[in-house]
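BUG-573 | component: ligand-complex export | severity: low

The export step for adenosine-5'-triphosphate jobs runs without errors, but we want the raw record kept on the ticket for reference. Input record follows.
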Amino acid sequence: MENYKKYDKLNYYLALFFSGIVYPFINLLLALVLKRLIDSGIARNVYELENAIFVCLLVCIFLAAAVFTSELTKNRFVNNFSKKYRRHIFNEIIASDLNEFSNNSTGDFLATMTNTVSTIEEKYIKSFFSIVSNSSLLLFSIIGMFMINWQLSIPVLIVSLVPIIVMSLLGGKMQAKQNLALTQQNAYVSKVKDAFSGFLVIKSFNIEKQISKEFQNGNDKRADSEFSLSELNNISGSISNFSGYLVFLVAYGLGMFMVINGNTSIGGVTAIVQLVNFIVMPLSKLGLEMNNKKAGLAASKTLNQLLEKVHNPVKDNSNYLKLNRFENEIKLTNVSFSYPQHDEAEKTVLSNINLQIEKGKKYALVGMSGSGKTTLLKLLMRYYKLTKDGNISIDSVNINNINLSSLYKLINIVQQDVYIFDNSLAYNIMLGKSFTDKELNYAINKAGLRKLVDGNSKGVDLNVGENGKALSGGQKQRISIARALIRKTPILLMDEATSSLDQKNTTAIENAILEIKDLTSIVVTHKLNPNLLQKYDAIIFMKDGTITEEGSYEELMKQKGDLYNLCSLTMIN
Ligand SMILES: Nc1ncnc2c1ncn2[C@@H]1O[C@H](COP(=O)(O)OP(=O)(O)OP(=O)(O)O)[C@@H](O)[C@H]1O
């Protein structure tokens, strides 16, 4: 609980005070006042009886107030915890390193943000307070019983220990079953998420039956693991209940013998039975709550393990250099790279790349599929750090030493796969940041979105639906281009950013970007259009992870090398 109380210390301590001290103390008072009430009734002392009734009423009022306040403070703590903890987990995941994030399925994260966190809230946090309150109730009741009659209290307590012993014997099994139930629940969420995300594929390939079978399998496992857990809970609950009845029997039976022998009064037995209630009830609850807490602990461990896996936050602290301007060049020196592989041997994707990108110049990056073009751009974005030899620098500053947010103010990328948020057109371009109408219109015009904006009654407020389902592939790509252009970063990388557009529109957008003075751009393209290629300052040709040619279109065509050969195969005339 140490790690969790920080989320709302005030209500945490208030809840502990009211549920752990105030409530059990008043409860003890009630038993003592009750004893006085019954004994004064049996002694036919009307004055004492009236007094006891009045005090009893007061104690009842305080008891109700204590219960209300302890619930209120506990609920406030849980509420604040829920808000802040979920925000914290979300931020941790969002801050994680791209590579580590990609190694886990989004279903895992989704399940963590839903089931796992709920289990921690429901089972760990709530059980913790219940354990505190019930343990205190138990302790105060034992003290009260000893104050009233210790001879009767001892046998009653011995019988009360049975459920605790049973629970501790079942505890390990319970935790294992809880772990399994949580794993199956998370796998179930992942499966459902996958099926719904791949709905189109399921329909197109007519695989509803197979998917339904897989779902059924996961669903059965989830339900079975929960049933098995509830069975164990049922067994431990029944044993607790039985012990509870036994405790009553001992308290009443022995108590009445003691009354006959003159060792206690009827009021004393009644008060002890009243207190026994607060031993039996907490004991039966304690067993269950302890198991719940263990289950919550298991969820907490699962969550921490996931966070540890992704908790390699992109280091972006203030020790890193802030680069405010791009003045001269990006330089790649002897850059080699392999993707970090967890299961297979590493494969070299880029080898010995040397390249100089000058400010304000426009570069086309072409080459065969799989030659490493995207990887090169990803390294410029520092999505991956160089794991092998080499160095990438911007204006002589090693890219690894640049503060990431300042890097992304200089460099931006437009990728082939565009993620569109379920929000308006304007939101998808501005992405929550504020820009003037002039800036928004500039980006809309340059990215060729004017027709879409003017052609609908809502304009830029048009809601584009989940992942832009109301848009065509080309429109999504235009949004992605507008996103980059509105930010006016001095360096722009485009990775097949116009692959969904026809030749006419591709030419229009590439021309618009070529016209932006001072912009340094590297454009990966498969559409080898000579009219466009001629406009680039240089064409960089990649093959098998190396740069084989670099120069203007005319130079490379004269050279009759790789570009020439590729153009002969795919040239668009
Ligand atoms: N995340 C990754 N993990 C492991 N290997 C990868 C990863 N991404 C790409 N690769 C591998 O790196 C090589 C280069 O891929 P890359 O995407 O850079 O090529 P590309 O030239 O952009 O290809 P295309 O033109 O088809 O987009 C390929 O062999 C690919 O399988």
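Assignee comment: Attached the raw record above. DSSP finds 19 helices and ten strands in the chain.
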